Amino acid sequence: MAQPQPRRRRITSAHVIALIALFVSLGGGAYAVTTAPKNSVNSKSVIDESLLGKDVKNGTLTGNDVNASTLGQVPTAKTLQGKVPGDFVRATDYRRANFSLFDNTNDALATRLVIDQPGGFLKVTAVCFLGGAGGNQLLGGIGITSSSNLWAVSSSAGASETRIGPGQVRTIAQVGLSSHSLQKNAYWSAHAGDLITGLAAVHINPSVDGSHECRFGYARFGI
């Protein structure tokens, strides 16, 4: 007796609708996993090199958003031109100043300004002083002193001096008496192995525009 053949079921429209619904639900689930919420992005949302700086809103990316361990080594900056940090002067080893002081009162008081204190034990002061009969003499100078004992100083305007006591002032640049005088000197000062060297300049202009002005230039390296 012949075996009955299995009955083939006819695909109906209900089958088709059910399959479509199944694929939509599966696709929707996958989409929800790989797509970030509205107005945000994640790593799967970004194609390599497709996100630019202009795409990031100011203030939305902070240091806390960056994993430092994933960053590579910063390449050598071109502006350093192969130099290492030791090739540069530290800020504490250099001082530069250009300024003016005025003394328009003919009395015993000078206008003073401390312009540098290298190492904490040396002090450099600029002085502008108007004096003389009728207030017709103007003096400008830069002096250096130390709170330490046995320090030394030398200027191109004078002889070197060593073993100077604490609190004693030595002048490294000074002009006066005549109008439009200018003096500029190289100098150095040393104490217990510490050495500074530089340039000091003074220019006085006693009568132009009615003011009595002392102009100064100062530069120092080392300590």
The main sheet comes to: 6 strands, antiparallel
- Terminal-residue CA separation: 117 Å
Cα gyration radius (Å)? 40 Å
Strand order of the largest sheet: 1-10-9-8-5-6
Strand content: 35-45%
Identify low-pLDDT runs: none
Secondary-structure-derived class = mainly beta
What this model shows, in words?
By secondary structure, the chain is mainly β. It has one helix at 13-34; strands at 94-102, 111-116, 122-131, 137-146, 151-155, 158-164, 170-176, 182-191, 194-205, 213-221. It has a six-stranded antiparallel β-sheet, with no helix packed on it. It has a four-stranded antiparallel β-sheet with strand order 2-3-4-7, with no helix packed on it. The longest helix is centred in the N-terminal third of the chain and has 22 residues, at 13-34. It is elongated. The model has no long low-confidence stretch (mean pLDDT 77).
